Amino acid sequence: MTLPLHEPAIRIIGGQRLSGRIAISGAKNAALKLMAASLLTDQPLILDNVPQLLDTVTMAELLSHHGVTLNQQGNQWTMQATNVAPTDTCFDLVRTIRASIVLLGPLLARCGYVRLPFPGGDAIGNRKIDYHLHGLQLLGAQVQFDDGFIMAEAPNGLHGATMHFPNVTVTGTENLLMAACLAKGTSVLHNVAREPEVGDLIACLNNMGARIEGAGSETLVIHGVDRLQGATHRVIPDRVETGTYAFAAAMTGGDLLLTGANPDHLHSELASLRAAGANVSIGAEGLRVTAADQALQGVDIITDPYPGFATDMQAQFMAMMTRAKGASLITETIYENRLRHVPELQKLGANITVHGQSALVRGVDQLHGAVVSATDIRASVSLVLAGLVAEGETWVQKPYHLDRGYEGLVEKLQSCHATIERVG
Ligand code: EPU
Q1: Ligand 1 centroid vs 4 CA: distance in angstroms?
Q2: Are 15 and 140 contained in the same domain?
Q3: pLDDT-based confidence at 424, cuts 50/70/90?
Q4: 190 and 322 co-located in one domain
Q5: Residue nearest (by alpha carbon) to ligand 1 atom 7
Q6: Bond before 307 cis per omega within 30 degrees
Q7: Which SS3 state, helix, strand or coil, does residue 155 take?
Q8: Cα(134) to centroid of ligand 1, in Å?
Q9: I need a labelling partner for 117 at 20 to 30 A (CA). Which of 276, 290, 388, 400 fits?
């Protein structure tokens, strides 16, 4: 194998059983939207438990282009949007982060006008934003496109409306929610996303003085208010990070205590983990996952919006299944292009056949180290998991994908006896 010594990578020597404790960080996909919510008030929004990630730092930089100041004390981030600029956005930054789309609703609601580049993000599918734009139009905005930019204008302010999302969208729900908070009158959103991160945003917005009813259900009712105020809010624990380390514990025949995790946010994933043969117990400190060496069985999963099995944990579950006994049929229903980790797992010796949106994984006795690389956060971390059980050295290239979504990944795994390091 030719080692990519000149490029940054994560180097892993597989075969260690993980044991110890890992503190779960704040949820990336909650923090990013909570940060955007700071645009809705001129008062300070104090966010606790914000994960230090490439994506949260990028979001803070983006927000600074719109006039939001940040005072950072460790994981407590205080954001204040005293004067907001609805157009001053750095094209390159927006292209790197899909969640930039959630600036649209708050900026429009606060300023009556917004001009943003189309968002970027992972290469996992088409990732349309038509529901976001249609919803804003229903709230009274005129939407136009110009040379890669979205422009939305509501000179007379936004007004309450009813929207039925044709399919569940997380950021679409969050965008309309934030816009509707400051609209005149009542809005009703049907078929909304019920992901815990949406619930976290609702809790924070209500803390800021919004009047949102129906959290956790398929319908949200938002009574618009004239203004929102500052608040203090703690970001929920990251369920995807939790699931990732839970699978890592099970596949290495390990024993991990995931402190601060909220198991209520992972019902489907933990049910599948138990079905595969791991022991999962819930205590006062968090979630404990143990498994005997190579004791896992193949289990089928289908991704679905929450409370279904999260697409953001599909790649990691697949990595776990590569060495299970028997077969596992893994079906991706959220994104049309989220099986791109398959060829990389195959380089490590996995036996996987893809049929449309499904991957049939036949467990093998042993994976073997290789040089691999992926194009999104979750695919990248699935390769790290596979590397933990592969014989020999695995090099996972493009580690910035991991830095986008996993706080202290290398250090957390090292502290649990993994042989892993960052090189280059
Ligand atoms: N969709 C449309 N039209 C829209 C919006 C969405 O057709 O207007 C489709 C998308 O093309 C996709 C599906 O609906 O096929 C779901 O997309 P959704 O809008 O729910 O995804 P998102 O809000 O862009 C968030 C997370 C993703 C996570 C998905 C699904 C953030 C910043 N991102 O994306 O997280 O996979 O929800 O749960 O919250 C990750 O963290 O690695 C990640 C990709």
Answers
A1: 33
A2: no
A3: confident
A4: no
A5: 128
A6: yes
A7: coil
A8: 16
A9: 400
Pick from 86-95, 238-247, 358-367: least confident: 86-95
The Å distance, Cα 303 to ligand 1 centre, comes to: 13
Each residue's pLDDT tens digit, 29-64:
999 999 999 999 999 999 999 999 999 999 999 999
Same-domain check for residues 170 and 297:
no
Domain that holds residue 51: 28-234
Of all protein residues, the one whose alpha carbon is nearest to atom 1 of ligand 1 is: 128
Residue 205, helix vs strand vs coil: helix
Q: 146 and 134 in one domain?
A: yes
**Ligand 1 centroid from CA 30, angstroms:** 13
CATH code for position 295: 3.65.10.10
CA of 90 to the centre of ligand 1 (A): 22
Distance from the CA of 169 to the center of ligand 1, in angstroms? 6
In sequence order, what DSSP letters do the residues of 88-153 get, joined into one string?
---HHHHHH-GGGGGGHHHHHHHHSEEEEEPP---SSS----HHHHHHHHHTT-EEEEETTEEEEE
Backbone angles phi, psi at 342, to 5 degrees: -60, -55
Could you tell me if 404 and 266 lie in one domain?
A: yes
Domain boundary among 234, 266, 291: 234
Query: First and final CA of the chain: distance in angstroms?
Result: 18
Q: Going by CA atoms, what residue is nearest to atom 35 of ligand 1?
A: 312
Q: Are residues 190 and 60 part of one domain?
A: yes
For atom 39 of ligand 1, the residue with the nearest CA is 29
Residue-wise pLDDT tens digits, 144-198: 988 788 999 998 899 999 999 999 999 999 999 999 999 999 999 999 999 999 9
* Two tokens, residue 226: 């004239």
Most distant CA pair in the chain, distance? 65
Number of domains in the chain: 2
Site of tokens 């592969």: 390
Q: b/e map of 31-66 (b: 16 or more CB within 10 Å)?
A: bbbbbbbbbbbbbbbbbebbbebbbbebbbebbeeb
User: Quick check: helix, strand or coil at residue 78?
Assistant: strand
Confirm whether 39 is domain-assigned: yes
Quick one: 267 and 414 in the same domain?
A: yes
172 shares its domain with 258: no
Domain end point (choices 185, 207, 234): 234
Query: Which amino acid residue places its CA nearest to atom 36 of ligand 1?
Result: 312
